């Protein structure tokens, strides 16, 4: 009888905590490797965490072209909102890489992050990393980025 009550109590706790501890994770990657390749992608990721403990939002977007005469281009929009009484914050990592000889890496990224809600003193941190890399000989790296955090 006691064991059945304990199991029912743990099951109820697990069901009630799942929405309260929800977490959003997005991982998107695109890769072209070799000679004369093109890696192009457009990504939109919208994440919203809520509940008592608004779990953290995590978005990882990567685009890579490696070799000779390659092009890596991407357009990225990440919108993240973490609410709840104890919001978990948001993290966005956006990267674009062209490595080798005669490569081009071009990227446009917009990251909008909001943690907490009006009137609540507990706001978790927002983190945004936007990188664009072109490494080798005769390469070009062009990037435009907008990050807004509240």
Would you write up a description of this structure?
The chain is mostly beta strands and 150 residues long. The chain has one helix at residues 2-20, and strands spanning 24-35, 38-49, 57-68, 71-82, 90-101, 104-115, 126-137, 140-149. The protein has one helix and eight strands, in the order H-E-E-E-E-E-E-E-E. The longest helix has 19 residues, at 2-20. Helices cover 13% and strands 63% of the residues. The strands form two sheets. The chain has a four-stranded parallel sheet, with no helix packed on it.
Features:
single chain, 150 residues, mainly beta, 4-stranded parallel beta sheet, 1 helix, 13% helix, disordered N terminus
Outline the secondary-structure elements:
Elements: H1 2-20, E1 24-35, E2 38-49, E3 57-68, E4 71-82, E5 90-101, E6 104-115, E7 126-137, E8 140-149
* Computed Rg: 20 Å
Q: Approximately how much helix is present in the residues?
A: 10-25%
How many helices? 1
Beta-sheet strand percentage? over 45%
The largest β sheet comes out as: 4 strands, parallel
What is the molecular shape?
Answer: elongated
User: Separation of termini?
Assistant: 51 Å
Strand arrangement within the widest β-sheet reads: 1-3-5-7
Report the average pLDDT across residues.
Answer: 77
């Amino acid at each position: 009888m006691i064991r059945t009550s304990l199991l029912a109590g743990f099951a109820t706790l697990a069901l009630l905590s799942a929405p309260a501890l929800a977490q959003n994770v997005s991982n998107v990657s695109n890769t072209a490797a070799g000679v004369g390749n093109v890696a192009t992608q457009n990504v939109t990721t919208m994440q919203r965490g809520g509940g008592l403990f608004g779990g953290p939002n995590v978005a990882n977007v990567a685009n890579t072209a490696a070799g000779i005469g390659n092009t890596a281009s991407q357009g990225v929009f990440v919108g993240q909102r973490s609410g709840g009484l104890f919001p978990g914050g948001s993290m966005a990592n956006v990267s674009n890489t062209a490595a080798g000889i005669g490569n081009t890496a071009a990227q446009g990224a917009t990251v909008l992050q909001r943690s907490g809600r009006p009137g609540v003193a507990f706001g978790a941190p927002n983190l945004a990393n936007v990188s664009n890399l072109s490494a080798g000989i005769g390469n070009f790296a062009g990037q435009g980025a907008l990050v807004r955090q509240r």
